[in-house]
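Notes from hallway chat w/ T.B., transcribed later so I don't forget. T.B. wanted the structure written out for a chain they're using in a teaching module, and asked if we could keep both sequence and structure tokens in one place. Agreed to drop them here.
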Amino acid sequence: MTGIVIFTAGREDAYQDYLRSVQEGYEPAELADFLPEDFTARASEDEPIRVWGTSVANKWRKVSQGDLVLVYRDGGFIAQARVLSKRDDLALAEHLYDLEGNPWDLDNPWQYLTFFTDFEEIDVDVAPFNELVGYESGYRPQGFTRVADDRIERVEAEHESVETAINELTDSGSRVHHVDDDPDDDDEEETADFGERLVAASKNGDAYDEFEQLVAEAFSRLGFEAQWIEGGDDTDVQLTSPVEAIVEVKARGNGQLQSPDASRIRGHQESRGAEYAVVVAPGFTPAAIDDANRDGLVLVSAARLRGLVERHEEFGLRPEFVASVLFEPGAFLDDRMDEIDEAITERRQAADELVSVMEALERGDGAYTAGELRHVLTGMLDGGVPDEDRIRSSLVLLAHPSLRVVEEGEDGYKLATSAEQGAEMLVRFGALLNESE
């Protein structure tokens, strides 16, 4: 859950600290003696290091990467940003704040540091904010705080997301829209139309909003929890489950993306705390693919994303499986789509075996062992009879408590229902079946 963090710059010394440490920021070389090379202190190469310190450890520990930050002064908010990372560092705090004119107190040092990105100056009165989160009208922020989670949940319920609510309040930043698409799986015409719109939008440089929304919907159809992020200097789509990833969406009228702009994408990935970074475009030049391989990005064309959606809606691909193939660094090309298709073929064969085992049980009267069923199947099938171990595995699956299509007894297995009803049970629990069978 995205939270809201508030810190105040009311006193003159605090305001001067804000101007120096947050508004202006520091060049990396200025803090190189204090920060390790692998510590994330900024989201892009051309952004300064923006940081704020507090002595309020209990509230600081509740702050999370991705939380929104509002800076309060004299009855209103003067800036907003996003939390990039945190660090408990007394030495760096002393370097930043133990200056002439600052009320530095070693008993309460400002050692709990928060680093920011996506900084913007704003001018918003505190009154509408109080109304937004449910504070009393006369509330004025004091010190460093984080808005309580129950208030955040109410904001999300009323405004779809915290980011959208703050965007409406400050007229800056981004809006986050949760995508919850539930298409009719039986409507093949609707699925085909969606794919056509997705590919067409990827080649229309004037339809970037539509393309972003369609990409978010595509991942939602694949079973991911997806958010479309509208506006702001941010990523375009964020996936939060079953993996965390950002998706950069690039429409190109000429059909080819020349370069993925890896440094900018990495900044978005770090600011969102995502494990993977994906770029969707109509197509990619060989140079863009080389860049992706070098920088660990994932490239997927709109046409191949369409292909994944079509396969999912026909065969019910699990998002965890799609992620294991799709999010390997580099370009999602024909070899990876072949991997998807091979897995589908294997699942179809396994499903056919399950149906055959149920039909063999239905032919007999009583219980059968795996070896006995193999003899029955030999008389039923024109070749391709599974071996005894595969039949035993099928029986164990069919006897699983979530299915109970067959029952195991002392003499072997017997069918607990009809083969037709068993097939319906398998479909209900996600097994892949060939409809013609």
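Follow-up for T.B.: The two ends are 46 Å apart (CA to CA). Might be a good example for the class.
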